[in-house]
Write a structure and sequence with these properties.
It is built from 11 helices and 18 strands. The protein is of the alpha/beta class. Strands 3, 5, 6, 9, 10, 17 and 18 form a 7-stranded mixed β-sheet that branches. The protein is globular. It starts with a strand and ends with a strand.
Length: 342
């Protein structure tokens, strides 16, 4: 079968699309023919290498996908060949205290497909049943593949960690990104006031159509003053942060008294400074968040099934053009999600 792999870390030239052996289905696993796989910023980080996180190489890339079950192990009775499914990208031990408490993403062995083990960007994949969920019937394979990781991540950040309330104001960085556009929809469904940032007018309009009440251009020097004016100088209750060092100082400055900053990533760097006096005087909270529990994933899939969260597929590439797809994301050209077809 064909698959997107890296053998070593580096630039887009390290991405290869080559022929490897097709995996066999084990008695306790399920084999899926991948129909579509989505790109995330995580793919960029994995390709470049993550400091402090050993990544097994060579590695099949990708954490999001949808497809059709072709074979079911003899020990499995929940799914059948022919079922159309989406992939839940988190992996965990299933036996520890956290897993038993339904907090799988706190498991010390928690991993992500395409990061800690072979991923989804291949013609076939063999998975544990816990990584499989029936595909919403109203979605195409490309649409379904685009949604799981960003929606489960954003839902965990906003609803479970920051505990955003309907009468609160949230600042969402990069509203046209995959995780940012998911966050806008989640906040809109909740009824919160949404301020999104974007890099240009077309991306700003994309954010407005998704439900953002206000959009500021983060390339403008005075964008923080615009947010202050919108909030009556009181600041925002929640900052949805996934940028890192480039926005950290502004994030802390615009956070209201008692506000919560929740972060899931650091695309511009992870080293930041914190003024502890500012933090405790304003009684603010800084919250880290990684992926989500299985219960949150299922909650998100139910909302997707109810058509309250919608897919935002921006561009589809043949999987063989994986280098072009990475360049498209790295050059910040997308509004929404980028999908690959085998």
């Amino acid at each position: 079968m064909k698959a997107v792999r890296i053998i070593e870390h580096g630039g887009i030239e390290k991405l290869i699309y080559d022929e490897i052996p097709e995996p066999s289905c084990l008695p306790d696993k399920i084999k899926i023919q991948v129909k579509a796989a989505a790109l995330n910023h995580l793919d960029i980080w994995v390709r470049n290498g993550l400091p402090g996180l050993p990544i097994p190489l060579p590695l099949i890339m990708g954490c999001d996908a949808s497809g059709t079950i072709t074979e079911v192990g003899s020990q499995i009775n929940k799914f059948q060949p022919g079922d159309d499914v989406v992939i839940q990208p988190g992996t965990f031990c299933g036996d520890c205290e956290h897993c038993n408490d339904g907090r799988e993403n706190y498991c010390s062995k928690y991993g992500i497909l395409g990061e800690t083990e072979n991923g989804t960007q291949a013609e076939y994949i063999v998975l544990d049943p816990i990584n499989i969920h029936l595909k919403p019937e109203h979605l195409s394979f490309s649409e379904a593949a685009s949604m799981p990781l960003v929606f489960m991540t954003a839902h965990q950040m906003l609803i479970k960690r920051a505990k955003l309330q309907p009468d609160e104001t949230v600042l969402i960085y990069g509203g046209s990104s995959g995780v940012g556009s998911a966050a806008i929809q989640i906040c809109s469904d909740l009824g919160a006031q949404i301020i999104a940032t974007s890099g240009n007018e077309s991306k700003g309009e994309f954010c407005r159509k998704l439900g953002a009440h206000h959009v500021v251009n983060h390339n403008h020097e005075n964008w923080l003053d615009e947010v202050k004016e919108i909030t009556g100088k009181s600041g925002v209750n929640v900052v949805f942060e996934h940028v890192g060092s480039a926005t950290w100082k502004q994030s802390i400055r615009i956070l209201s008294k008692g506000g919560r900053l929740v972060t899931c990533g650091a695309t511009t760097g992870a080293d930041v400074n914190i003024n502890l006096a500012h933090l405790f005087m304003k009684q603010q909270s800084i919250l880290g968040s990684t992926m989500s529990s299985i219960s949150t994933f299922k909650e998100v899939m139910n909302i997707i099934n109810d058509k309250k969260y919608i897919p935002m597929v921006n561009k589809i590439f043949p999987m063989k053009d994986i280098r072009d797809a990475h360049a498209y994301i790295e050059n910040r050209q997308q509004s929404g999600k980028v999908v690959l077809l085998p």
